[in-house]
Amino acid sequence: MELKIFKNSESRIFYTFLAVHFIVWTALGLVRTVLPTDALEGIYWGSLADFGTPKHPPFFGWLAYWVYNIFKSDLSIYFVSQLFIMFGFIYIYRLGKFFLDETKSMLGVIILEGCWCYSYITCYYGFNPDVILLCFLPMIAYYFYKCMYFGKISDWIKLGLLMGVAFLNKYQTAFMVVPMFIWALMYKRETFKNKFFYIAVIIALLIFLPHILWLIKYDFFPFMYFEGELTANSWLNHITAPLMFFVMQLGLIAGTLLIFFITKLKYKLQIDFSGKDKKDFWFIMLLGYVPLIIHLLMGLVNGGHMRARWGYEFWFMLGITLFYFVKDKITKDRFIFVTKCAYIVMFIIFLALGTLLSVEKNYRSRYPVPVVFNDLQKFWGERSDKPLKYVGGYIEWTLPLTIYGESRPDCILDTFGYKNPWIDEEDLKKTGILIIDRTQEKVINETRKSCPYLPKDYEISPIQYKFFVHNFWGQPREYTVYYFIVNGE
Question: N or C: fewer beta carbons within 10 Å in the chain?
């Protein structure tokens, strides 16, 4: 009996494409010998079993920790990363069917292969809050549409649950609330008199409440991270920061735009901006692009450093938008052509990123944890008879030691000047700590920051240490770093 999802040959092509995408981008991560820093941070944050982290709410950390400790494999992190992206694709397709026919809805997903955040992100960042939002934001948009047009209590409950968990994952979910509010104010004002709406709000708040209480308890110190990121160094930053963010977003979506315009030129597709339903048009425009405009305005006002990945999760409407304005019917030949273009883009990104990961001699992807950990254990053993329990310094060198190291030492996290809620200072005094960083000055600064109890005249003399990083082909690169050991009492 034919599976229900395979309604026609296009649907077979669509689901085959999704399967290939999933396998390719999950497997490529195995070229690395260590997980990306974002994934390592999440695993460690989750191990703290707390309702907050130094940067984000706790959901991502909990999930990363549970997945990694259940399966005990780096592959599990890449797998769950692409699993979220797959569910995101499915909901983009389902959302697209509110505005497009079946074929265009599928192409609205396939064409996103040119947005390299759906592929590159798994290999380069592993698993992080952005990946989770790549799934949750299309789901939120989908159930928001259903609530606005059908109003079932089950949809309102799902929307409340999704919003609560999304907020518990990343604060930027708030950028999605703004366009939802504007659209409801424009076309569905009766929503604000609907008891189901308030049930959804209460559900979301109850899910997020433990984190709010945690923030209050610790004086909202995670917001210090964003304050540091968004603080301008000069007046020029107010222009260059949003401009660079805009350019980086264009680079992100360039592949998708290229596939679309090649298809348009080949088949002379007609673009029609007239005769569109205003409610649908503004639903797509507001939910798809207002969050990105908010980012640009934020950069214009604050002028601080803006990371390109802050915009990644908000491009889920791009494919839907492009095909929403295509007047022509998409025939099977046209469908196959777009899919072939997407495969070509997939191959190009795979080849470029795979080559980079295999030839680079970078500690971020090929950190020799067993060698470094054994050496540091040896240095520690020469100075102390206690086990190595705490490491501090450069997070990209200490986190791998914490996750992969035999004794799993605790990592000192940057709490931006606030007291670290996860470290018992009295225990730290008794046990001691090993600090490792890139320069002697950084080791001295990190030692003072990690051990504020040390007297001002305490002598800190960092020791040079060298290790080699080998690429996939065995070619070495030498790194010179520095470490210092603070003995316990």
Answer: N
